[in-house]
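Tokens in:
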């Protein structure tokens, strides 16, 4: 649909712009024929407003002969042909309208010579106004195309971000499943009952993670509960060597976070921290809201003599990329490796952004 006709505000502004043009035409006729302003207003204003709608047709000519694909000959031929045709038709309508007003007694006879004298001016004026309308519509078409391109670009960014998030989520389950299945295999002969419990807990965990992982966001409390389920599975393997301590502010517990955000960090704490210590240790998770930001800290003991294993940085990289995909530059992850401890701090907006 025509972009001006589709918007009432645009149409009102467009028609209002023609009123001064009618005023100029009235003034010229008044000066030429010394006629009264009332008769001239009845003649000029309806005529110009009608031609205003005719000039809207330049939009379709602009689409038929766009600036870039069309050659200069085609573009000029299309617009000049349209201008000549519309100006000639408008002059014919003006003659008919003038004669009709004269027959109704609304136009003085002294106006006829002035009208005949000004016909070339009227034709040239209509011709020029049509070309000005064409230029305006070319600008309008360019603006609409730019806005569509911007909207499409934003849509592509959203789709790209969603695809990246799905790809990052897909990396979580295989790694965890590999570790969990190894634990089950190890328990089958030594402790079949523990293996059975592990399989049940693993099934429950995967069911919950798939359900929550399909959402755009979940409360931090649910995310922590999911992390606790994961550690319950790992505890079958590590026993008393693995402990999990949480300290969550109630207001932080309700804050929305991307689902499965903490899983790689908790897995890292177990795989690269607790697993290398004979006495084990406690994984601590603290979360608090600081103004409009949510701060989450995960800390675990580590063996200072343990060598970094392959893939040690994949979990951190996964979380960094997910934070960047959701919060862009508004989030950060800080990982600090101390002599006997490893600490990861996440800071991001307490509310999910709306892009």
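Residues out:
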């Amino acid at each position: 649909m025509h972009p001006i006709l589709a918007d009432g505000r645009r149409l009102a502004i467009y028609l209002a712009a023609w009123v001064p043009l009618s005023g100029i035409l009235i003034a010229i006729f008044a000066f030429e024929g010394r006629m009264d302003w009332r008769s001239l207003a009845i003649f000029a204003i309806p005529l110009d407003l009608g031609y205003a709608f005719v000039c809207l047709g330049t939009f379709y000519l602009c689409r038929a002969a766009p600036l870039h694909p069309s050659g200069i000959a085609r573009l000029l031929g299309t617009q000049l042909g349209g201008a000549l045709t519309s100006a000639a038709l408008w002059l014919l309508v003006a003659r008919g309208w003038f004669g009709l007003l004269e027959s109704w007694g609304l136009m003085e006879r002294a106006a006829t010579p002035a009208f005949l004298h000004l016909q070339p001016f009227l034709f040239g004026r209509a011709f020029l106004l049509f070309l000005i309308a064409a230029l305006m519509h070319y600008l309008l078409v360019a603006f609409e195309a730019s806005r569509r391109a911007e909207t499409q670009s934003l849509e592509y960014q959203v789709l790209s971000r969603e695809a990246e998030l799905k790809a990052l989520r897909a990396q979580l389950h295989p790694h965890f499943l590999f570790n969990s299945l190894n634990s089950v295999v190890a328990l089958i002969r030594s402790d079949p009952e523990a293996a059975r419990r592990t399989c049940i807990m693993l099934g429950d965990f995967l069911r919950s993670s798939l359900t929550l992982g399909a959402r755009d966001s979940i409360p931090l409390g649910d995310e922590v509960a999911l992390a606790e389920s994961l550690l319950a599975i790992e505890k079958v393997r590590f026993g008393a060597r693995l402990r999990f301590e949480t300290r969550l502010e109630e207001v932080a517990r309700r804050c929305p976070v991307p689902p499965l955000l903490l899983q790689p960090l908790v897995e890292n704490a177990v795989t690269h921290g607790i697993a290398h210590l004979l006495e084990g240790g406690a994984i601590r998770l603290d979360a608090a809201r600081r103004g409009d930001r949510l701060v989450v800290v995960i800390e675990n003991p580590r063996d200072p003599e343990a060598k970094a294993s392959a893939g040690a940085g994949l979990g951190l990289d996964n979380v960094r990329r997910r934070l960047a995909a959701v919060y862009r530059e508004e989030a950060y992850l800080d990982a600090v490796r101390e002599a006997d401890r490893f600490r990861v701090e996440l800071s991001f907006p307490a509310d999910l952004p709306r892009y």
